[in-house]
């Protein structure tokens, strides 16, 4: 432990492996973005949007609650063990998606996928935060999410191409078999646990002597602090929820909306790929930018740009394909601005002793957005049509950005042991 140091440069090898692992994690979500809604309508002849979107609702609810307990599991069993468990639970998913004989198998696959993602993605986030320390959190989160959502987009594109050549099932899901096996092997054989790095950071900020285990408050206290008591953490949590509401809505609505407009499978694959690819690659820039100019400006502007993207898709200014691509690029840019800044802000505001739990609570609210977005889209689409689901998501995104602008305190340079240089809120840890 005497040679253990915080920093991206000091821990670049483990950090790089974790980036690779998160690319495999993201690829598992990308399996579903283009193909699965169309499996529901074309293969199983499901006529209700709400029933089709049920797989997204199941995924979002399960992932949200798994995120909530992931920090507790990591502190009890180590981050590495939780990461490996996430991959083990994900092993059946591509087989259920590719060969499941009824829609219930697809929903069941998404229950497993939600648990797997909640464990594996949460651990790659926490392990990178542990390794880099406070100085490069924006960059660390940018690289982590770039790998994950870049893989989401590329996999969505590949599955769209495979489906256009070979059919909707099972060939597009062969990619998932590779992702799960590779992710599990790398996690078991090459990844090291990082919990000791969080303890090192806690000792460096003067709250806990080196070598001692810091006091960790109960989850109920962390949940309340992150959800509503701390105004900054509240504003970040609600922005995360609305951000993934957009993703959950687009996940179910876009394939059906653009298929009805005459866009072919390959074109839908491009529309579904552009959003997460721009979102992912953009974070390589926006992550470091959050370390330079602050978290709040990126969050506010990112939400506003997403609202404009919804307006473009909802109104339609050209051919359906062009409209979808332009709107998806705007959604990707806006989300790229928001995503690493939100995670960095939570990491800034939470003490290392309860940071993993606070990140879990934030991710609980954020990934609840998948279920909320899919449920909202299903209900609104049934009553008013698919386009109105896009309009409502855009309005909620605009309101969320205004809430961040009014209530959030900047967290960049905040020291958890003292008031932030920027005037951010401080929190007393219960003893």
TrEMBL record:
GO cellular component, one term: plasma membrane
CDD domains: MFS_MdtG_SLC18_like
Pfam families, per database record: MFS_1
Lipid biosynthesis among keywords: no
Entry keyword set: Cell membrane, Membrane, Transmembrane, Transmembrane helix, Transport
TM annotation in the entry: 12-31, 51-70, 82-99, 105-125, 146-167, 173-191, 298-319, 325-347, 392-408
Main localization, broad class: membrane
Domain spans labelled Major facilitator superfamily (MFS) profile: 1-195, 232-431
Membrane topology category: Multi-pass membrane protein
Gene3D superfamilies the record matches: MFS general substrate transporter like domains (1.20.1250.20)
Localisation per UniProt entry: Cell membrane
Molecular function GO terms recorded: transmembrane transporter activity
InterPro entries recorded: MFS, MFS_dom, MFS_trans_sf, MFS_Transporters, Sugar_transporter_CS
Protein name: MFS transporter
Protein species of origin: Larkinella punicea
């Amino acid at each position: 432990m005497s040679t253990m140091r915080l920093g991206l440069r000091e821990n670049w090898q483990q950090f790089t492996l974790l980036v690779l692992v998160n690319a495999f994690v993201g690829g598992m979500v990308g399996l579903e973005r283009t193909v699965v809604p169309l499996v529901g309508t074309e293969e199983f002849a499901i006529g209700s949007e709400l029933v089709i979107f049920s797989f997204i609702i199941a995924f979002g609810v399960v992932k949200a609650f798994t995120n909530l307990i992931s920090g507790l599991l990591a502190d009890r069993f180590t981050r590495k063990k939780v990461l490996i468990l996430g991959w083990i639970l994900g092993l059946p998913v591509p087989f259920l998606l590719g060969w499941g004989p009824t829609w219930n198998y697809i929903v069941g696959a998404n229950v497993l996928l939600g648990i797997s993602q909640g464990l594996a993605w949460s651990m790659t986030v926490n392990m990178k935060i542990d390794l880099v320390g406070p100085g490069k959190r924006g960059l660390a989160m940018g690289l982590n999410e770039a790998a994950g959502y870049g893989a989401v987009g590329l996999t969505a594109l590949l599955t769209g191409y495979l489906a256009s050549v070979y059919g909707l099932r099972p060939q597009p899901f062969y990619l998932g078999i590779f992702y799960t096996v590779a992710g599990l092997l790398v996690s078991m054989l090459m990844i090291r646990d990082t919990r000791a790095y969080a303890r090192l950071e806690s000792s460096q900020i003067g709250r806990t002597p080196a070598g001692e285990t810091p006091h960790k408050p109960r989850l109920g206290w962390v949940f309340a602090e992150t959800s509503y008591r701390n105004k900054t953490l509240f504003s970040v949590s609600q922005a995360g929820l609305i951000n993934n509401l957009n993703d959950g809505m687009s996940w179910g609505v876009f394939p059906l909306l653009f298929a009805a407009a005459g866009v072919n499978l390959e074109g839908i694959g491009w529309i579904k790929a552009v959003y997460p690819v721009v979102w992912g690659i953009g974070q390589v820039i926006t992550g470091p930018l959050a370390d330079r100019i602050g978290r709040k400006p990126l969050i506010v502007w990112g939400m506003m740009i997403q609202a404009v993207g919804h307006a473009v898709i909802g109104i339609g200014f050209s051919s359906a394909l062009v409209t979808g691509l332009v709107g998806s690029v705007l959604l990707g840019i806006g989300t790229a601005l928001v995503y690493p800044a939100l995670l960095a802000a939570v990491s800034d505001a939470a003490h290392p002793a309860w940071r993993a739990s606070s990140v879990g609570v934030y991710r609980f609210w954020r990934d609840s957005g998948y279920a909320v977005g899919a449920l909202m889209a299903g209900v609104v689409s049934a009553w008013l049509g698919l386009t109105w689901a896009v309009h409502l998501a855009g309005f909620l995104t605009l309101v969320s950005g205004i809430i961040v602008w009014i209530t959030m305190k900047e967290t960049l340079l905040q020291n958890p042991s003292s008031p932030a240089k920027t005037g951010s809120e401080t929190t007393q840890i219960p003893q």
